[in-house]
Amino acid sequence: MAMIKLIDLVSKEYCVNVIYLSITEENRTAYSLYKSIGFESMNEIDPNNGELLFKFTIK
Length: 59
Description:
39% of the residues lie in helices and 31% in strands. With 59 residues, the protein is α+β, with helices and mostly antiparallel strands.
């Protein structure tokens, strides 16, 4: 619930349509949480930190 409120706050405060995040591959809990909220895997690795990239498109 907190993550959904944070997404709403960020989208309104900064007028963004897409939110990006990255997680370590072994963090299955975060993976499940973000997928359940609606984040989509970009099937890419962040070259700066080696983490999996995800995005959430605000409708």
